Amino acid sequence: MKSPKKNAHIQKLLKKKTQLKSVSSKPKFKTMKRKPPPFIKRKGSAYFQHHQLSYRLPLILLVASLFILIIAIPSLIVLPQNKNNKATEPADDFTIMNEQQQEAISVAVMRTKADVVEDVSLENYIVGVVAAEMPVTFEMEALKAQAIAARTYTVNHLLTNDEDSYDITDTVQDQVYKNNDELKQLWGSAYEDNIKKIKAAVESTRGEILTYEDAPIMPAYFSMSNGYTENSEDYWEKELPYLRSVPSPWDLENPKLVNQETFTKAELEERLGITLSSDAADHITIARSDSGRVSQFTMDENTFTGREIRDKLELRSTDFSVKQANDHYIFTTKGNGHGIGMSQYGADSMAKEGKNYEDIVKHYYQGIDISTLDEAAPTLVSK
């Protein structure tokens, strides 16, 4: 017989074998770990990136499509295209309005030689005046001063002109004016450079005029003084507060300051409508204004104003003296022009010293302001 201890050990082994057999007899299944949903994956994993793109790509395409439909296409339709097919940035509406209004101002210019009226926009007319009235070789600030003076004269004339057929003439009666064709003929190969300079001066003062107590002034100007400008009432009858005599010492350095004109006794008698004695030069008396110009001229008891002598003899200025040499009379003049307002040569000299166009106009026109057309001539702009 087997011992009880040994039997117990055998039974234990049999029981364990039976348990193992029962387990091994169960169906076999391959165990797989369940993958967690994408949102618990780490962002650095390829799995996450794949699913992230799969969700985001349609959303990006949708947003891009909406942007093209709502923003891009209407912009391409609305914005004007230039020659390079590039959209141009729209300018400020207020600026566009002012420039359009200014360009709408037309100046009817009587072309004296051709006896026709030429309609020109205001700013183009000012270009033609500056080019004709002032040497293009002058400093830019002097050209700007000329532009603003010419524009002011034109606006003043447009507001007060009574003529029906034209606004202004193209002669020294008003302002000398030359159109594009005339300037091309005058300047030849230098036309492109010259017209660019003139246009730059005009454009930089676009829409600006000179005013006194909010009204456009009468901006007289002339070529060259005798060292001083003239009070308006000493040449014209009307006294204007902004046309006062001021120093213009720069003109004294001009080599063309002095000029002489010689007349025979017969020529002088014909032009003045008088009869002269053989020693008429000994019977001359001259009264002068504060600026040194002749206010009254008497010769052989025949009395004239300085302006009358200048006009009848076509002298350069009213600052003159007379000498007799046998049967000839020599008139020596200083300066060039009526002497009222701005000296053009003085303006150029001031510019060379570093003065700007505001400095120049405020020196020659006393107590004035620089205003815009909208402010000083609204009725003209609104036409």
UniProtKB/TrEMBL annotation:
One of its GO terms (biological process) is sporulation resulting in formation of a cellular spore. It comes from the Bacteria. One of its GO terms (cellular component) is outer membrane-bounded periplasmic space. Residues 112-212 form the Sporulation stage II protein D amidase enhancer LytB N-terminal domain. Coiled coil: none annotated. Transmembrane segments: none annotated. PANTHER family: AMIDASE ENHANCER, N-ACETYLMURAMOYL-L-ALANINE AMIDASE-RELATED. This is Stage II sporulation protein D. It comes from Oceanobacillus indicireducens.
